[in-house]
Amino acid sequence: IADVAAEHDVEANIEQMPLFLAQAFRVLKPKGFCVFFYDMDHHEKLQQAAADVGFKVQRWPLVWHKTSVCQNMSAQFNYTKNYEIAIVCRRGSAQLLRAQSSSVWSGGNDTESKALGHPFAKPFALWEWIYSATCLRGTTVLDPFVGCGSSVIPAIRAGLRPVGVESNTKHFATLQLNLQNFYKSLDPNCTFT
Fold it and tell me: How far apart are the C-alpha atoms of 193 and 186, rounded to whole Å?
């Protein structure tokens, strides 16, 4: 976790969210979705920032109920936080591809964290759940904080065209390795240039 601490200055990140949301709205197709994870402390602020740039925002978050063991640095004071939340923003008259029976997904990320080498890797099945409701096959999806690729591999498996941005050179190098390993699992004879 120490490897990524510098990238997670929450207040600095929150200050930049209106800029991110404005650009996300600008580049998104007229019936597209913007889904991102955040901390509950900032729910109303982020809902308002998204609405201010033109998004229609789901009033309640998606919830990832973590079934993997979660760290608690102050267990004597706090219940362990074993969930993450994501906001769902849609542009124009975007509709989910199919009705969803729940806003909660349960599962662990032990496999992905170990395989991808990143402590905050999201489970592939979580991404698949989100993509299956918001993306038609062939859709381009952007992850502007791609890390080591937990969103990219499920996007490829779902027939999507992922684009990722990563400022941490260590994560980017790991992302490249993870993608090469993934493609080699599909075709052991593939080569990379």
Answer: 17
pLDDT tens digits, residue range 151-168?
999 999 999 999 999 988
CA 59 – CA 107 distance, rounded (Å): 23
Say how many C-beta atoms besides its own lie within 10 A of residue 131's C-beta.
Answer: 24
Residue from 108, 37, 104 nearest 69 by CA: 108
Q: Which of 134, 62, 153, 69 is nearest to 105 (CA)?
A: 62
- The answer to whether 150 touches 112, Cβ cutoff 8 Å, is yes
CA distance 17 to 13: 6
Cα separation, 31 vs 55, in Å, equals 11
Contact between 156 and 164 (Cβ < 8 Å) = no
Q: How far apart are the first and last CA of the chain?
A: 32
Q: Is the dihedral of CA 32, 107, 112, 168 positive or negative?
A: positive
Give, for 140, the enclosing helix (H) or strand (E). Answer: strand 140-143
pTM of this structure: 0.90
Q: Which amino acid is at 123?
A: P
Which regions of 39-139 does DSSP assign to beta strands (E)? 56-57, 62-66, 83-90, 104-107
User: Tens of pLDDT along 37-47?
Assistant: 998 999 999 99
